[in-house]
Amino acid sequence: EGVTEVLAHRSDTLQDKFVEVPCSADYESHKRFAGCTPRKCGRGVTDAVITREEAERIRRIAERGLSLGGSDGGASILDLHSGALSLGKHFVNLYRYFGDKIQDIFTEEDFALYRDVRQRIQQRIAHVFGISSSAMYLTKPTFFSRMNSTGAKTTHDEYWHPHVDKVTYGSFDYTSLLYLSDYSKDFGGGRFVFMDADSNKTVEPRAGRVSFFTSGSENLHRVERVRWGTRFAITISFSCDPQHGIGDPRVT
Question: Can you tell me the distance from the alpha carbon of 120 to that of 50, in angstroms, rounded to the nearest whole number?
Fold first, then answer.
């Protein structure tokens, strides 16, 4: 795979690490939104936005939700917005499937923490890229992921393929990942890899670490296969187009 550089080691505690890269042409084929559409592109990592304790609380939300289902393969997702939950080889709607019981699983405090964390990540991205956070809209899909070493049973389990978020999800302009477990302690493999022409740049997950980047082809990326243990993260993404905006999830 050529040269690999580590952008962020698990043992590092990073205030704000940012690497600027030239923007791709991906944004040209979409409507531009002044004060939001990327003109400065790149990728950042910070350990200074979410505490480890908050990350552990959020991981417990993911664990409770995913305990209701889970993929037969190695990758399970839970989307609190749409209610999509991996179950076997398919997805079910958590809210329809479990109905009123959902209030026994998630609390208002869970959703308040989720909302607070989302807002802090949004503000940090806006600050680093020099845009207005009010011009950014939370967009779908936004989801928890749980990955382990179980073999893939469907294409949904094959999370390790290189991809570009703006191509996969047209609405994405800024992508963030909040890691909820620790590389080499909770799981092996599972590093996040930016795939550049000259080298790969890896981010080693640690609980509370936020990795964020512009969503175009300038940030082609993949996740290594998890070799052992369990890797938890949440993907939270933003669009500049208000028509693609979604609200925060609520218990009711």
Answer: 8
In the set 39, 227, 231, 250, the catalytic residue is 231
Residues 6 or more apart in contact with residue 105 via CB below 8 angstroms: 64, 65, 68, 98
What architecture (CATH level 2) is domain 4-242? Answer: Sandwich (2.60)
Please indicate whether residue 231 is annotated as part of the active site: yes
Count of positions (residues) in the chain = 252
What pLDDT digit, counting tens, does each position of 162-195 carry? Answer: 999 999 999 999 999 999 999 999 999 999 999 9
Per-position DSSP letters for the chain, written without gaps between them:
--EEEEEE-TT---S-EEEEE---GGGGGS---TTTS-SSEEEEEESSSS-HHHHHHHHHHHHHHHTT-EESSSEEEE-TTT-EEEEETEEEEHHHHHGGGHHHH--HHHHHHHHHHHHHHHHHHHHHHT--GGG-EEEEEEEEEEE-SPPPSSGGG-TTS-B-HHHHSTT-SEEEEEE-S-BTTTEEE--EEEE-SSEEEEE---TT-EEEEE-SGGG-EEEPPEEEE-EEEEEEEEES-GGGB-PPP---
For 13-56, the pLDDT digits (tens) are 999 999 999 999 999 888 999 999 999 999 999 999 999 999 99
pTM over 0.85: yes
CB of 236 within 8 A of CB of 176? yes
